[in-house]
Amino acid sequence: MAYKHIIGNKTYSFLDLKALLAKASPFRTGDALAGLSADTYEERVAAQITLADIPLKVFLNETVIPYEKDEVTRLILDQHNSQAFLSISHFTVGQLRDWLLEDTTDLVKLEAVGPGLTPEMVAAVSKLMRNQDLIAVARKCQVITSFRSTIGLKGRFSTRLQPNHPTDDPRGILAGIIEGLSYGSGDAVIGINPASDSPEAVLKILLLIDRLREQFDIPTQSCVLSHVTTTIELVNRGAPVDLCFQSIAGTELANKSFGINLSILEEALQATRSLNRGTIGDHVMYFETGQGSALSANAHHGVDQQTCEARAYAVARKFNPFLVNTVVGFIGPEYLYDGKQIIRAALEDHFCGKLLGLPMGVDACYTNHAEADQDDMDNLLTLLGVAGCNFVMGVPGSDDVMLNYQSTSFHDALYLRKVLGLKPAPEFEKWLIRQGIADRHGTLLDHSFALNGNITGLWKI
Amino acid sequence: MEDLENSRNRQDGMSFLKGFTTARIGIGRTGTSIPVKQSLDFKLAHAHARDAVYSSLEINSLIDSIANFNLPVLCLESKVTDRAEYLQRPDLGRQLSQHSANELAKQVKNFDVSICIADGLSALAVQQNASELLALLIPTLLKDGLTIGPICLIRQARVAVADDVAQSLQAKLALILIGERPGLSSVDSMGAYLTYNPQRGSTDELRNCVSNIRHAGLPAQVAAGKIIYLIREAFRQKKSGVNLKDNQDLFID
After folding, report:
1. DSSP A65
2. Predicted confidence band at B185 (pLDDT cuts at 50, 70, 90)?
């Protein structure tokens, strides 16, 4: 169905809902590359004004990718909870935006309507929101998950320790882990991107971390970010898999390019859960997403990159993940050009994910060909802290020597905890105190921690 | 002053870990922040990477460095007009400008191999590594009896521009040496991509890639060995891409 808006003597018309969503998106290079952006500043605002008047009910009738063609669309509509939708079913997108920001709209109300929201509704409303709106509403949300530690509690802020090594050298990885732990990093997960996806290489890393974790009784979980099929194979061989990782996207075709579909993810969930390794919870999936992935796989169906991203959250939501991480600046400047676009996208993703009930973290990052630097990441990190982001990455000195990009450092997380009065996951906080790494106020203690004297045996792997 | 610095920049007792990785560990802290020296080290590395992205091909010195191969040299450019556009429009970086396309159309055709050198994301990388690699490759290819087209130097180009070039020259195999995305510790990393039977619109799974070619990474000698193997196999099997990759390690030792 076509949508129209008149400004002065100019009539703007938008072919359908997906065109309207794309034209209403704040500018980013990926949408321009796809030829979907508004042509002028005025057209963009005209699209936003038009979008504000669209009833939410329209989103249940007009799909951006046909139901018959795409299993993600089918998932979204088949799992839509009309009971939860009832209280907001008379809203337009604009009214939803204002309602989200009302003082009386609290966590209880947000959680109640969550299952009634589709990714497209959430993406639409985000396009009408300024950065501060995205922060203010996300801050009201709380998504708590657990495995061996509890992530997402108010007043807590966690990190994925990311000790990648260019050739998966176990000693190099271990050096990064020990360094990170000594900075209080790793309460969300110790997660390694392997250079090789071979099951043997992945198993070696899994065994390494598992031995370290057991020896020092660290209340955290590990993950080697191999392809889900590799992880399933390892689970079936009895490997110590805590969390099962997979990159996901918001269209069936893009997921196909990742070598996955919903049934493979379901198999992965069941297999990993069957290991029963979580001590306080059974959230076992770790998903990564990022705006632009569908376009880069030429699998976006003319849908703007932020709406595609929100649709990936429908995929994530189905599998009750422990962590969802939007790797926001990794994809490069042809999708998100500079610090401004990266920051905006990160806040959108965090907001959309949280509203859809996901334990959102953000890899606040950039590549060297993006117009961004550490100052942009400092801004983003601080905004994410205020927005109540569940976790960020902890990379030695911000420099990932395997993936060749810059993310947040161990130091960055400590800065954020200090300036905003945030603490690590409660189980991990106690462990840090027990180990003499930090005191009760979260201040790092000077003397090296107990691991230092006892790591000799670990090198033998 | 030095005492003050030492007390501020707490050295962790675990600096021995540094020997196991090139990651930035053992950098100490002041409060919870990175000490000034390490902070500036990082900035310098980022500055080098940024400068590499914005470096441009020094055509004359490049021509000089490949003059002794006695092959014709063409200077071409993509449809991209400047660096900002290059970074935002990979589609334009994959196509030759009209002027360059016309230039190519005038050339003698029908070769086994066409060779391109392109700036990609680091002109610095090809400036430093291309001629050394070609000095190893070209004599071997000629000895194998393969014919080589003009060497094309291409500004503001992406990998797939090589398909455009090879198709115009009617070459059976496209080889392009191109600057890779600079990392903080690898600003001069060059990639070599080859495609058998290249066509406009060929996609990445049809290519083979030898990556990280630079003095501190994959040395030219080793890279040349891999590329020659891949080219020979491509001609033998009449294909390139994922299918060739699997057997690569059988050869390398």
Report:
1. S
2. confident
DSSP string, A205-235: HHHHHHHHHHHTT-S--EEE---HHHHHHHH
Kindly list the residues from chain B whose CB atom is less than 8 angstroms away from the CB atom of residue A458: none
| A92: in domain | no
Q: A420 in a domain, yes or no?
A: yes
Give yes or no for a contact between A374 and B42, defined as CB atoms under 8 angstroms apart: yes
Q: Which residue out of B32, B42, B88, B211 would a mutagenesis test of the A interface target, given it has the greatest number of A Cβ atoms within 10 Å?
A: B32
pLDDT for A455 equals 61
Task: Note whether A176 contacts B21, CB cutoff 8 Å.
Answer: yes
Q: Give A352 to chain B, closest Cα distance, Å.
A: 26
- What tokens were used for A423? 């603490």
Q: Give the integer Cα–Cα distance in Å for A73 and A62.
A: 11
Choose among B88, B121, B182: nearest Cβ to A29: B88
d(CA B69, CA A1): 62
Write down the residue that tokens 């002041």 correspond to: B30
Residues A336 and A449 in one domain: yes
Among residues A325, A64, A172, A432, the alpha carbon closest in space to that of B23 is found at A172
Domain limit, last residue, from A37, A54, A71: A54
Amino acid of residue B90: P
Distance CA B89, CA A34 (A): 10
Cβ <8 Å between A396 and B45: no
Q: Which domain holds residue A48?
A: 1-54
**Cβ neighbour number for residue A9 with a 10 Å cutoff:** 5
Residues pairing with A189 in the sheet: A160
Spatial contact of A455 and A218, defined as CB atoms under 8 Å apart: no
Distance CA A303, CA A111 (A): 27
Domain holding A7: CATH number?
Answer: 2.30.170.30
Domains, chain B, with CATH or none: 59-252 (3.40.50.11240)
Residue B74: CB atoms within 10 Å? 18
Closest by CA position to B12, among listed A411, A100, A368, A65 = A411
Q: Kindly list the distances between the CA atom of residue A49 and the CA atoms of A301, A444, B19, in Å, as whole numbers in the listed order.
A: 24, 50, 58
Give per-residue pLDDT as tens, B7-31: 344 445 566 788 889 999 999 999 9
Segment A385-416, tens digit of pLDDT: 999 999 999 999 999 999 999 999 999 999 99
The 3-state DSSP class for residue A334 equals coil
